[in-house]
Amino acid sequence: MTTPLSFRIHPQDGPLRVVLVGAGGMGRTWLHTLQAADRVELAGVVDLDAALARRVVTEELGEAAGAPVVVGTSLREVAPRCAADAVINVTVPAAHLPVTLEALDLGLPVLGEKPLADGLAAAATLVRAAEQAGELFMVSQNRRYDRHLWSLRHHAAQLGPVGVLTQEFFKAPRFGGFRDAMAHPLILDMAIHNFDAARFVLDADPVAVYCEEYNPPWSWYAGDAASTAVFEMTGGTRFVYTGSWCSEGLETSWNSRWRLSAAGGSALWDGETAPVAQYADGRPDDARPTVPLPPAENTAGALAEFVEALRTGRVPMGECHDNLLSLAMVYAAIASSRTRSRVEIADVLGNC
Questions:
Q1: Is the pTM of this model over 0.85?
Q2: What digits encode the pLDDT tens for the residues 219-263?
């Protein structure tokens, strides 16, 4: 299930006409991303609350919206009316399955917000649906599109075989609402970003994990808000993640604090500024290959890669087969914590 699918190419001279599904907080963010994109045109907005969708379009875009945007409560209703070419799914996780299935059934490629789906079984269902439809389904892991993360990946490649990559994540957000009641708030809601970014930097896949979750006595979360996970990655590298969502003071970046130890030296990244590296051979950084840059930052980067994939057939980052491995890391870590044992990623995927 982890082999990239063969998806239909959508070559065309004009902009890609997209329907945005979900007009909440992330919907507003994506409206601005779509409006600023060169090769994309917002054709429609779908939300269960049609009045909200109309208000958001008016408030966020106003006269900048250009051609009229079709608004409705159903993708099956809106997509034909606006001659849509693709769907951007920014609904809540529980709606990822039905919305993406509907889009694929309509013959429309999908760029969805993380997570791929609300659970591994649903995720596997969507991967199979994308295969059957022959359409691209890509997940927007927007933190992959950070120029400093790309720089760290560059150092990792230059430093040779990596022994260990560590991430420290310590924040104390008081969200209120559903996160406070979740059983696994840190691992399930946040760590997908950290795990996926580690895969990107290491250019490696997960093999197995041992994880412990716990909840400090002062935590305001009902579920486990802290954890330590040790992943074995392909090539024998270890990725060690330690985090807490109830850690007041000296907080890290949302991107974590990183240290990479390799055969040819080490690299550090604070999650915000440019990473630093020390090479064992003493050669300066400027003597090494130029650091590549993402096509754009954040959601704009994911959108640019989605459009390029549909135009050229090049498999993008976040393609659903690949992203399934990042989601599997989350559920394998939870399973390991529950059983107090090492869990193989293949076993978790095999149960889908």
A1: yes
A2: 999 999 999 999 999 999 999 999 999 999 999 999 999 999 999
Count of beta carbons in the 10 Å neighbourhood of residue 44 = 26
Give every strand in the sheet of 343-344, ordered side by side: 276-279, 265-269, 257-262, 162-170, 238-244, 226-233, 206-214, 343-344
**Whole-angstrom distance, CA of residue 297 vs CA of residue 331:** 28
Q: How far apart are CA 38 and CA 40, in angstroms?
A: 6
Amino acid identity, position 294: P
Residue 352, domain member (yes or no): no
* Domain interval for residue 311: 16-143+299-316
Same domain, 87 and 164: no
By the 8 A CB rule, do 326 and 123 touch?
Answer: no
Same domain, 20 and 47: yes
Helix (H, G, I), strand (E, B), or coil: what is residue 239? strand
